[in-house]
Amino acid sequence: MKTYTLPVIGLMTLGASAFAAAAPSTGNSLPARDNFSACKWLGDRFKWFNSERDHKNPYIQEFNVSLRMQYGLDWIDPNGEGRVMGEKEGNGRRFNDEWRRFRAGFNMKFLNNFKINNVWNIGGMDGLESYNAKTNTWDTSDLTYSLYELNLEYKGGPVTYAIGKIKPRITGEYRTSSSAILTIERSMLVNQLRPETNYGFQVNNSDKKDKLGWAAGVWLNGNGGTGTGTFNNRIEPAFNSRDNCFITGTLSYDTSNDVFLKKSRLWLDYAHNFTKWGDDAQNKAYEKLTGYGFKSKYQGTGARDVVALTWEGSEGDFSLMTEVMAGFNVIGMKAGAENVFGVTVMPSYKFTPHWEGVVRYQMAAGSNAVKWEKRYTQNSTYSGTSDCMQALYLGVNYYIFECSPNMAKIMAGIEYAHSNGTDASRQKGFTGWSYNIAFRTNF
């Protein structure tokens, strides 16, 4: 049975804010009403220790816990007759509701220059449902309990070193946290080419304000147990082939005041994967490894070589992200798929501290090489592959707390997508509308 918890979470958050605003107190409890900030009070509940705020400690400087909840609903309206799964059997369903993410963890700064980060995916939540044609039923897939991040950082002056399970941050949208992205889903090609969190070693410049920034890393491209279900918890590193790692490199340059926006930066990302998934036989082995239902052990990039050029800028309440990217020798696609190219343009404007509008145009092209993000086509009979895809997204975001906008927000978006060409079996890619609403918190 599905758990319809989105309204409950929203009421709890708003109720907590109203309660906090009405209850005067001092110390570690609610502050006096005249000086009260619901945003600060709620955020401080997750900052368990701070040596500057609480008392000096030569060993531990900060200890924070984290909780990220993302719940969403979507509705698809594909073009054409019979394009909804189960429709011919009288059991068609156009909507989905799911826990998109549910993560909890902690981070600790200690000995002045060290930091440990630990985040877990919490299992047992209702994820996407998929149609089973044999039984004419919709089967629930639950989120799986698994390790998402566990890494140690050391800030050695101008250079920061990190080792452990880390998110390799390439492409502009993937570099942005899921709690801070402006659209409910990242662009299609970003989702296709990006890696998952991986065990690796990374070095980067410490100051994000440096005129010239850089980062480099080497990563395993697979981890997890060899079983399924709860045993496949992705805790231990695992090799899937003889050449099993990928490398990433990033250069960035501060272009503030050099172009038409006051604050801006240019990024160049490159990744090379040494895994040699090539012919169709190997791709079938890849599909067996990864499967569907989030039991993947392959965590690497979606192509042998990935290149992305991103420019991000802002001035006042206006911001803009533009990105061009390419994947050469795509991995895990049907025979004949080789290279894929794409572009994203995403302007946004904050009308008030609480309300923001966003527009995104995206395009991806490559013969049999464009892989649709699963949530776009979950309830559709269209193919998950196409030669070219274009989509336009219109969205609005409501930020509940002004002092920390991404701590709690409601997102709504409408997107129209259109595919050209067919896949290897002559099936056309998704074309139609999708409507989405989500509630997201990040404490």
Protein described:
The protein is mostly beta strands and 443 residues long. The protein folds into two domains: 1-45, no CATH class; 63-442, Porin (Beta Barrel), CATH 2.40.160. Helix content is 11%, strand content 47%. The chain has six helices and 19 strands. It has helices spanning 6-22, 38-44, 172-175, 188-193, 280-290, 374-377, and strands at 47-50, 60-78, 95-110, 114-121, 126-132, 137-142, 146-156, 159-166, 198-205, 212-219, 246-254, 263-273, 303-315, 318-330, 340-350, 355-371, 385-399, 408-420, 432-442. The strands form two sheets. The protein has a 16-stranded antiparallel barrel with strand order 2-3-4-7-8-9-10-11-12-13-14-15-16-17-18-19. It has a two-stranded antiparallel sheet with strand order 5-6. A hairpin with a 4-residue loop joins strand 5 (126-132) and strand 6 (137-142). Helix 1 crosses helix 2. The radius of gyration is 22 Å and the shape is globular. The model is unreliable at 1-30, 225-233, 278-283 and 288-296 (pLDDT under 50).
